Amino acid sequence: MATHRELDLYFAGIDIGSTMTKVVLIDERGALLAAIKGPTGPEHRQLANEVMLEALEQVTLGIDEIAFIVATGYGRFNVPFADRQITELSCHAKGVSCLFPDVRSVIDIGGQDAKCMKIDSGRLVDFVMNDKCAAGTGRFLEVTASTLGIKLEEMGDISLRATKDIQISNLCTVFAQQEVITLLSRGEQLENVVAGLHSALAGRIVALARRLGIEPDVVLTGGGAKNVGMVTAMRNKLDCDILVPDDPLITGALGAAILAGEAYMKTPSQNERPTAKPRRLERATFFDREH
Fold it and tell me: pTM of the full predicted structure?
């Protein structure tokens, strides 16, 4: 990562998702200075404070040295020190386009939703989203992993050892739990069942994505992109290559940081540039009426 010693302007993006909170710091040239992740808890504002402090400490910056901060994600309005809130779709599109300039389709598999985005020349032009049912999100694998008695992070490697295709007919998470128990009781191998779960989830997400029309380059982001079994299942369902960022969790925060820089720098005159809000990094609560 770059050093900030010789630069003057720094920008931050903070993405509060359903399961993870991410902070990215960049400089005025767009170089990545810090990327920090932490689990999202019920006190979103308090966690935002802690993750931001960790990122600042990594590069020995103070909060008042950040020229502009953009918050995104479903908890974006619970970040008292943010200067602007921008939708996660716009931030994901910007972040992915920065990493993959030729991207045309983005599929983001999060803990509580799945998003499919169509990108044209770095701009978000259309999207579809599933945030109503766990069966089309990372929560599907989390719940079934618990049912199988294995760790979520182990599921990908286990699925790659499958020796046969097993169809999981129930897309509902509750009924899928019952189905996997039945399959195991009949003697099906664990790895085959786990591969079947990945295939079922991939099929549901790809069906959602095809409503937009899939065009390469296709980029997979979110927690699902860290699961090698999920990436393999998505490639098989789409029958095309899928690109995965080095850290697929930070694309939204990265896009937020880039948009923060653009908002600040697009005005040539320093006197007309947006003014950062007063910074408060002390613990905050949902009942703080000042913000």
Answer: 0.88
